[in-house]
Amino acid sequence: ERRFQEANPLLQQISPDIENWVVSYQHLGQAVAGQQKEYLQMFYLVLQVCYYLMVGQVKSVKAVLKQLQQSIQTITAPDWPVDADLSRSREADQFIWMPREHLCVLVYLVTVMHSMQAGFMEKAERYTDKAIVQISKLKTHTDSPILSTFHVMLVEHMIQCRLVMGNKTKAVSELGILTKLLSSNSLLLSRHRAQLHTLLGLYAMSMNCMEAAESQLNAALRTSKERELWTFANLNLAIVYLRQSRNSDFMALLDRISPDQLPSSSHCMKAAAYYIHGLQAFFSSQYGESKRYLRETLKMANAEDLNRLTSCSLVLLGHIFLSLGNAKESMNMVTPAMQLASKIPDVHVQLWASAILKDLYRMQGDPTREQEGQAMHTNYSQTLLKDHFAATQLQEHQLINWTDGNFPQIN
Q1: Which residue in 11, 140, 146, 353 is a FRET match for 251, CA 20 to 30 A apart?
Q2: What span, in angstroms and rounded, lies between the C-alpha atoms of 44 and 56?
Q3: By three-state DSSP, how is residue 165 classified?
């Protein structure tokens, strides 16, 4: 129900009860009470991690996620009793809410979600691979619906990571995998249809197919019942309008994307809304206004380690200072933006930053570094162009034109 303000106090309230579980239930025996506590603790930690991720507090979740990762190591250790042994106690004393093999996949999934929000794409890729291997093993023994849901969510996150890293060919291939997973399960399709439209919209944006992007994001808005996804789609639709210089359409969206009125509880989403307003002011050459919005984005992004928003804001500030002829301030913004973008890695920010660096070195009268900047910019540009062309050649690329009915035939 997304009632986050009510959920948080409840989570804090229950923590001491779990901590004191072994003492309160020692009549069951130290071992049994300890095992029960571990399963309860995992359930509690999963709820806490999901709470923090849903409200976009990426830094705040770190300690809880680490605890959860330690807990899964405890219950998957060789000396931990198998679930069947634990379930021999009285039914009222049991709390095995999910088989531990499934819990492993769930911990991988929330780790992927955290890595993606924090801007660690390669870590997200590694954990996705581990989770999908685990799902494939488990599916040979059982066809659990929850595993199919986990698989879909992992692929959704992976597509976003590929787009950030500039790997559109892999992203569109995985969009094909996602449509196959969803087309084989009508319940999953109904629950994830809006997410699919959003991802197709993001892919179309990365391919500069703005008409298809707009169509997909509007389809996401029509089919979404979730406030957070609805907000995310509107924020991306605003970028589509900005890139096409459709200022009146952007202004019509204003009430839905204004940071002060945002229908979202997410810290991350609010920071993104400030960035988009900064972008709009930049395109209108209102540099002072743009800087004001971007400083707000940076303050929020730094508070919760939102690396992608930090790098995007820094490079845009660098561009503003370059436009104002302030080479020193521009360099102070672009250098950390490039370092952060390389760490993520975000190839689009690297491309943007390298273009600014090239101009800055020319302004400084440094031909050697200007040539290095030019070579770096050419390298990023050619890599993206090759990938762009390769993606257009894949059958899955035609998915950007699908909004209803059966999916296009993909071999």
Answers
A1: 353
A2: 19
A3: coil
Look at residue 245 in the predicted model and tell me its pLDDT.
95
pLDDT digit string (tens) for 213-247?
999 999 999 999 898 999 999 999 999 999 999 99
Spans in the chain with pLDDT lower than 70: 1-2, 4, 17-18, 20-34, 83-96
Give pLDDT tens digits for 112-159: 999 999 999 999 999 999 999 999 999 888 878 999 999 999 999 999
Q: Left if phi > 0, otherwise alpha if psi is -120 to 50, otherwise beta: which for 2?
A: left
Distance CA(295)–CA(289), nearest Å, equals: 10
- Angle at alpha carbon of residue 243, lines to 235 and 203, rounded to 5°: 65
Answer left, alpha or beta for residue 208, where phi above 0 means left and psi between -120 and 50 means alpha: left
How far is residue 264's CA from residue 226's CA, in Å, rounded to a whole number?
10
Token pair for residue 271? 């920071």
Contact assessment for residue 172 and residue 354, using Cβ atoms and an 8 Å cutoff:
no
**Angle, in degrees to the nearest 10, between helices 287-303 and 307-323:** 160
Type of residue numbered 285: S
**Contact, 249 vs 241, CB < 8 A?**
yes
pTM of this prediction? Answer: 0.92
